[in-house]
TrEMBL record:
This is Isochorismatase family protein. It comes from the Bacteria. GO terms for molecular function: hydrolase activity. Residues 30-203 form the Isochorismatase-like domain. Keywords: Hydrolase. Gene3D superfamilies: Isochorismatase-like (3.40.50.850). PANTHER family: ISOCHORISMATASE HYDROLASE, PEROXYUREIDOACRYLATE/UREIDOACRYLATE AMIDOHYDROLASE-RELATED. It holds the Pfam family Isochorismatase.
Length: 222
C-alpha cells in the first residue's frame, strides 16, 4: 500500500486551484464576514493563522468601505443550545458558547462593526438557512458575495455553497479565511474553487475594490 504524502497532496491541490477557470466578478459586490466571533477566533485551538486572517480582513474591510461596498456580518446566536443541529448537540462543539448574551458571541475587535454595516444572525453553519441574508442581498442589489471568515471547511464553505446555489458570483479571499483543521481548510479551498466560485488573493481583491471605487466616482453626478 502506497503511503500518502500529504505535503505533495497539498501542493497538487494548490496548483489545481490556481489553474482552475475563474467565474469572474460582478458589478455590485458585498463582503460577507462569517463568524469572526470570539468563540471561533479566540478558542483554545486558535493560532497565528486566526490572528493573520483577522488582520488581513481588517485591511479588506477598509478597502471595501472606501469603495462603497456593503459589509455584512454573519454571527452565530442561539436563544437555546437546543436550537443547534443534532450533531452539535451530541458532540462537543464551540457552538456551546453561542447562546445570546454570552461574551463569546461578540465580534472580534479587530474587525469591529462600523456604522452602516449589517449584522445577520444565524443558527447553523450556512448564513442562508432561515435568515434574512438573501433578502438583504436582494435589497442591496448584490450580484457577488466576497466571503471571509471561519472556519474554511465549515461555516465558510456552507455559506459559499448556498450562495452559489442562488447564482451569486462568489469570491473567497484566501488570506482572510482560517481553519485550525489545516488540511480540511486546504481541501475546502480547492473544493470551493473547483465547484462553487473563485478563490482570490487579498492583493487581487484590494485592486478590484480600488478599481470599482474609481468607476463609481467617475459615474457619480458632478
Amino acid at each position: 500500500m502506497t503511503e500518502t504524502r500529504w505535503d505533495d497532496e497539498i501542493a497538487t491541490i494548490r496548483r489545481l486551484r490556481a489553474e482552475r477557470t475563474k467565474v469572474g466578478h460582478g458589478e455590485r459586490p458585498a463582503v460577507v464576514i462569517v463568524d469572526f466571533q470570539k468563540a471561533f477566533v479566540a478558542h483554545e485551538k486558535s493560532g497565528p493563522s486566526a490572528a493573520a486572517a483577522l488582520s488581513n480582513t481588517a485591511v479588506l474591510l477598509d478597502a471595501a468601505r472606501a469603495a462603497g461596498v456593503p459589509v455584512i456580518y454573519l454571527v452565530m446566536i442561539l436563544d437555546s443550545l437546543e436550537d443547534r443541529m443534532l450533531a452539535q448537540r451530541v458532540r462537543s462543539s464551540l457552538t456551546e458558547r453561542c447562546e445570546r448574551g454570552n461574551p463569546w458571541t461578540e465580534i472580534s475587535d479587530v474587525v469591529a462593526v462600523q456604522p452602516g454595516d449589517h449584522v445577520v444572525e444565524k443558527t447553523v453553519a450556512t448564513g442562508f438557512y432561515k435568515t434574512r441574508l438573501h433578502d438583504l442581498l436582494t435589497e442591496l442589489n448584490i450580484d457577488e458575495v466576497v466571503v471571509v471568515g471561519t472556519s474554511t471547511s465549515g461555516c465558510v464553505r456552507a455559506t459559499v455553497m448556498d450562495a452559489a446555489y442562488r447564482n451569486y458570483r462568489v469570491s473567497v479571499v484566501e488570506e482572510c479565511v482560517d481553519d485550525f483543521r489545516t488540511v480540511s481548510g486546504e481541501v475546502s479551498l480547492w473544493d470551493m474553487q473547483d465547484r462553487f466560485g473563485d478563490v482570490r488573493s487579498l492583493e487581487h481583491m484590494l485592486g478590484h475594490f480600488a478599481a470599482l471605487g474609481r468607476r463609481r466616482e467617475m459615474a457619480a453626478p458632478a
